[in-house]
Structure formats: C-alpha cells, structure tokens
Amino acid sequence: MDAQTKVPLVEMKDISIAFGGVKAVDRASVNLYPGEVVGLLGHNGAGKSTLIKVLSGAYKRDSGQIFVNGEEAQIANPRDAKRYGIETIYQTLALADNVDAAMRKAIATLPRELCKTITWDQGAEMANHARFTIATGIPIYFCDPHAPWQRGTNENTNGLLRQYLPKGMDLSTVSAAELRAVQRSLNNRPRKTLGYLSPLEKYTELVASTG
User: Fold this and answer.
1) Residue 139 forms part of a structural domain
2) pTM above the 0.85 mark?
3) Between the CA atoms of 10, 14, 15 and 17, what dihedral angle is there, to the nearest 10 degrees?
C-alpha cells in the first residue's frame, strides 16, 4: 500500500498563524505517514519552527486542522499534544536568557560568602555565562564532556529530582507551585553527605557562621 492510500499518522491541514500583523505560517499542510521521516527546509523566518510549535501545542494556531490517525486532534497546549503522543525537543538558545535571569535572581538571595563559583555541564542554556559572570562576579566552570563526576552534587540532585519529575517528563505541564513543592521537599530531606542534616538546616548553619 503506497502513501497515498494510507491514513496519515499526523496531518496538518491549512495551518495559519500570525503574530501581530506578520503572517508566520500561511495555510501550510504537512502529512506524516508511518515509517517516514520528514524534514522541513526553508530560509530563516520561513515558519518551520513555528509550524512544529503549533503541532506540539506551544503556539495556538489561528486556523487549520490537525489530525492524528485520521481523527481531528484538539491541541491547545503541550499537555494536549502529549496525550496524542506528540512531544518536541527545541534546539534553541532562547532558553539562555531565561536561565541567566533566573540564576541572577536566585544568586541575589544568597550571602556573598556562599557564592564562590558555579560548575555547569555543556548545555547551551549557559550561552550567556560571560554576561552572568560580569554581572555577578561569580565565575562559571564547565565540566569536560562525559565527566559528570566533576559536578557530583548536581548529578546527585538530578537523581533525586527524577523521583518527583521522571526523566523525559514534559515540564511545561508542571506549574510553578508544583515546582516549589518539590523544592521544599528536597530542601527538608536529610542527606547522608550532610551528616543527616537537611540542606535547609545546613544552609541555615552556614549562613549563621558568616555573621
């Protein structure tokens, strides 16, 4: 059976979306059949990533339809898309500004004596590390590739976080309140490496010692 007689696994039909007066995608249609890999080619600003973000629920389309296995899919957000088995990993540096701003805000709440250095992995989200260091005076070191032991505390914390937020989970479905609840739980959880004090208790002890 050729592709023309099959029901598409995913069909995007006459999708349009505009931002202000700019038409980002104009009546675009894409079919994806089982066993196919589809590549979207075009110049910068052609609407490729915008179309994918519509499919994954990150953007709400102005018009058009999406079908999954021949049935119309109601996708208004990433949680809806995930119910249809659609998830997207965005390869973009747009996250860098958010991480930079969030880290500056968090660092500002800590005593200066406790802010020495930060060790990071090879993630693109720290593309603005030089700007961060200039603004805060805190140098950032990057681990060598495939050397997670160079940031042991981070790796340990990642393992604990996955007890609450499993690897591969769509974090866009998690509210800020839920994230704060996870934060409180971890900060009040005794750790062997801290002599069975919780991170909050150890932090309080360190802050007191700084006078």
Assistant:
1) yes
2) no
3) 180
